[in-house]
Amino acid sequence: MRWQGREGSSNIEDRRGSSGGGGGRGFGGLAGIIVVLVGAYFGVDLSGLVANDSGLSLGSQQQQAAPLQESAQEKQLVQFSSVVLRDTEKVWEAYFRKIGRQYQAPKLTLYRNRIATACGTGQSSAGPFYCPGDQKLYIDLSFYNTMTNELGASGDAAFAYVLAHEVGHHVQTLLGTIQKVHRAQQNMDQKQANQLSVRLELQADCYAGVWAHYAEKDGLFESGDIEEAFNAAHAVGDDHLQERAQGYTVPHTYTHGTSAQRKQWLQRGLQTGDIEQCNTFSSM
To answer: What residue ranges carry the coiled-coil annotation (predicted)?
Structure first.
């Protein structure tokens, strides 16, 4: 990707120098909340969690600043993530202006190992996630190596797709989609709730594609980048992950969609650049 020298976002919160993470409730302890399972391979995607006045808090975590030590790779990933985030801001700012609203950009929080969020205690084993309660994206930059070494989804464009997907969940929050899905899931059995989660995740993939449509026009992508993004979408398909982990698939437990579905909706957003084409709730 041609990202060097491009404008970066100011909405970066670097908490990699903080320690701790205990005290707050973990993902599994959020009573009455539907947790959307493994989106980025390992653990929990918080896109389905909605904080309310009586619900979630940051807990009693005490974080202490420590001297930040980062590798050359980490420094580059911070810069890269900032550029990608800024690019998503431009795309979604334009869309929200079009519909007569102002886009409220999310914060991208960098952390290591674990962190307190408005949705509970996040852990790096969960992969990147978005929390609607504080409208922040969370990522442990070590996930880049996980994608490369364990998922077979290498490259800058693959990492950009992951970031754009989480930004897609923020857009869903601003538009009220996540809140509607959460309310509906409360009156469903697990199988039905999972099906709604799949639709939510595929829409976030489509939104990532919408961003990629304009990023490609703006010259951000080089030859082979789109293929990297499609490969990443394939790598995090439920069927692919389950087959890889246990040798068989259990379709009714899918929460993010198959590899084919994820690629399909990413491609739809990429080809059209039109958020109106991302209604996964009316067409599957």
So the answer is: none
